[in-house]
Every structure is written in C-alpha cells, then in structure tokens.
Amino acid sequence: xxxGKKNGKISVIGAGNVGAMLTxxxxxxxxxxxxxxxxxxxxxxGKACDIQDAASILGYDKVVKGTSDYSEIADSDVIVIxxxxxxxxxxxxxxxxxxxxxxxxEISLKIKEFSPDSIVIVVTNPLDLMSxxxxxxxxxxxxKVIGMAGVLDSARCSNQxxxxxxxxxxxxxxxxxxxxxxxxxxxxxxxxxxxxxxxxVFDQSRQSKIAERTRNRGAEIVSYLKSGSAFFAPSAxxxxxxxxxxxxxxxxxxxxxYLEGEYGLNDMFxxxxxxxxxxxxxxxxxxxxxxxxxxxxxxxxxxxxxxxSRLGI
Length: 313
Ligand code: APR
Description:
- The protein is of the alpha/beta class.
- It folds into two domains: 9-147, Rossmann fold, CATH 3.40.50; 150-309, L-2-Hydroxyisocaproate Dehydrogenase, Chain A, domain 2, CATH 3.90.110.
- The chain is built from ten helices and 14 strands.
- It starts with 8 loop residues before the first strand and ends with a helix.
- The structure holds adenosine-5-diphosphoribose.
C-alpha cells in the first residue's frame, strides 16, 4: 500500500482517452487500485477488463474495477474528474463550458455524497473554471480541489525548449503559470536548460517562439487528431500529481489552485506553483514576477473573473 494514504484507492471519473490512459499508468506503476467510472457502463467495464488483462504481462498486482455506480467511489484517497467532452477543431476551451459545466457539477455532487474525504483533481476543460465549479459544488477545503494544467503546460514548454536547443527534455525544467488557455504564462526567469535560466539561453525572439508554441500546443494536437484532444501527456501530468499525493512526495509543481490573496488574486482558480502532498496543496509558492508577467497574470485574472460571473454560481 502507498505510504502516504491509508486506503490506496483512486477513482477516475470518465473512462475516455484521458481516464483510461491514467488508469493504465496507475496500475502499470503499481501505485493504487482504481475505480474507473463512466456514465457509459460498458465503456468503463470494457476498458477496466482490458487493462486488468495486461497485469500478468507487465507484472502488476493492483486492481481496476469498471462501473457506473457512484457508491463504488467511497473511501477514495484521490478522485480525478476526466469526464466531459473534449475539444473539437475550431472549438475554444470556452466553447466547452456549457457542455462540461453540467457534467462537472453532477459529478461533484456525487463526490460530495459518496467520498467526502477525498482529494479531487480536475482535468475537464475549461480547466480553471471547472476546478472552481468543483470546489464550490463539493464545498471541500480549498487545499483539496486542484486543477491539472500547469504540469502539462510546463512539460510542453520543456519540450519546445529542448527541441530548440537539441538537448533532451530531462535537461530542461520549465514553469508555466496562469490559466490553461492562451493566457498561460511561461516564466523564463524561473525555467532552466542545463542549469541555466531560459533568459540567459534564449534571446527574445526564441522566448516568444517557445511561448507561442507552448500556448498553441493543445490546439495543434486537436487539429491533427480531428476528433478528440491530447491525452498521453495530460494523463502523465495527472499521474505525477496523484503519485505526489499518494506517496506524500511534496513535489513542487504548477497546478490550478484556489487563490485567496496569493499573487494579489482572490476567489478564483489559476495555475501557480504549489507543493503537493498527502493533504493536497501543502503550500502555494509566491514567485517573484517581472512587470510584464504581473500584467499578463492580471489580464488572465480579469478574464477569469468575467468567466466566473458568467458561470453564475
Ligand atoms: N458522467 C460520467 N462520465 C461522463 C459523463 C458524466 N456525466 N459525461 C461524459 N462522460 C464520459 C464519456 O462517456 C467519455 O467516456 O467522459 C468520457 C470522456 O472521454 P473522451 O471523450 O475520450 O475525452 P478525453 O479525451 O478523455 O478528455 C476528457 O479532459 O483534457 C480534458 O478537454 C478534455 O474536457 C476533456 C476531458
């Protein structure tokens, strides 16, 4: 059993691309047992059976159960919400709002009813708004509702930077804050390639190129796939967060968190660096930002404030 938490149980809501891939990662790495829940019971059961069948080949002893019955999520340490509709070509994350808000609200109420002590990670887009909705609907402690975006956006930034330099991604460490949309903000002074700040490694035009490609990466993948959106890197990002909680690793990573005064912002979810451990968000790190980054964050926050008003909760 995982050392940080007593139950060693994860529930994944949504057995689509992200949910199934995340379940596979959790089992393959022997992290925890998984309840995989979908409104489409056959989808959840079929994928659970398939993942379980690989256990003797890959050598894991954890178990996945597919279901559409919410009583099965009881006593989860972590619940990951991946249910909803993915982005289609030409659709912005905002366009998803009206579809996914109904799904996330319904699921949040079920989580509150059946697993009130769990930590919730939201993956459904538009991410920061859906995290806010889950937080308000569950009524959970602010440290226990977290949106998965910053790990993914930072990884995408690292990929772009490593390609620019022709080095491996393990030699690059990026930090991306802000909202999980075109207002995401790569922090070049806090990102490093081979131990050196991006500011020292990249001139202004290469910084702009990396930032632009990072911001557009999700849409680029949607345009290639034509139906559906990215799921390999999102699942991996989510896995690292679940693992940090379950094993109480206290990793510092970027994620969407409820802010109450941090970075001068209030009553909204925005991507910031956090320390993630067995009780959820152990700490929000307040980094020094340049004037330009402060302005960009203010702009992202203003747009988020408007979106929250339109959400009407
Ligand atoms: N309750 C439970 N499951 C639901 C519900 C619901 N109310 N509504 C939809 N689902 C399930 C669908 O049946 C489907 O199996 O959610 C799953 C979504 O899977 P995909 O369509 O494959 O979407 P995926 O690529 O996994 O992305 C899910 O994550 O990255 C974000 O933008 C993405 O919001 C999207 C989410």
